[in-house]
Target: MFS transporter
Amino acid sequence: MNDTLSQYPDIASADPGTRRVYAKVLWRLMPFLMLAFIVNAIDRINLSFAKLRMAEDILLSDAAYGIGAGIFYLGYILFEVPSNLYMQRVGARRTITRIMLLWGMVTVATAFVTTANQLIAARFLLGMAEAGFFPGIILYMTYWLPASLRGRVTAGLLMAGMMAGIICGPLSGVIMTHLDGWLGFKDWQMLFILTGAPTILLGIFGWFWLTDRPEQSNWLTAEEKRQIAQDICSEPGAVGSHFGGVLREPRMYIAGLVYFCIYSGSNTVTYWIPTLIRGFGLEDLKLIGMLAALPFIVAVCAMYLLGRSSDRHMERRWHLGLTMIVGAGSFALLGLAQGNVVLSIFLMSLGSAAALSAIPLFWTIPPALLNKAGAAGGIAVISSLGNLAGVLSQAAVGSIKSATGSLYLAFDVMALVMVLGALVLLIWIPAHALKDRRDSKA
Model:
């Protein structure tokens, strides 16, 4: 962990005692939080695999599935702010425990839906339950870590969510292949039960493991608590601004539109890849699960390489724009590759990895685009616009699939959306508008 800390200049130059303090904090908090991010993502993605079997049992059309996949984000958007306000009142430990227990119970309860409308209601409740989890964790980190550590710690948490995509496919395939009929439950029911129950257990564990703030911990010494308090209190505070001023900032909405386009593509990957793979003529659930992990494996590698290149060259726009265009081109070519399973899998993996990799690339832009006073409010609005894409894009994909019987047209539409986002980025967010260019690095 000390080697990891050497990546952060402010910490690397600190005395060994300070380095030991933050190594201790990271070893205490990060394993739990990364595991929480993994189960969080799995409990979202599992629906895409359950659909392969549950559609016949509950008469779930592709249009209804698209609504169910998207309405999750509506519940999330509506209850995100109240959840964050609640966290400020009662503390992180109670809030994170409450969120994990509720989303775990809703996931398990989804195993017992018998109609499409019940599934849609369950997904809305899941969005309500999860609301505030990601921003709550980000806020929690500000209590424990100085700014020089929080950036890459956040990236590590996002990478943990990506690892869930690698885990969920093979895990779902094994559960649905070997546990059909176990304890009287069908394969898709066992999937929801066995992916939701660990979340409940982890939430209970979090109640005893997490501490709201450093000064309340019994695993830090008095000197270590003093060091953390001193480091965090010495950081310059953000300049205040009225939220109304943030809402009048055009660049925020331009960035929000770009994120909307990116999120439309990445969400389509998350919820429709297993269905797309089965459309290649493959029916074995274990094989589908293994192939569904490929885009996430490629995405993890691409995220690292693209992020490193973007940081080295201090260039954001073309890295992101070209990544989006590669994803869009791969999606558009899928229809032409019908009948060629190997080429279809290659295009699916490349396009999906590009769509997923675009997300961390995008989040290097808002902090550089917005002024310090408006960054916090602007980023929140941009995030909400992205979540709105989760609602609309999946309803659109489901409707197209129901109307045409094919996913290829839906992926063509998502390709056009991603090209639109790339053009908006490159035309309306000029390089000189970003504050972290190479010439400002010196």
Remarks:
- Residues 16-57 form the longest helix (42 residues).
- Confidence is low (pLDDT under 50) at residues 1-9, 436-442.
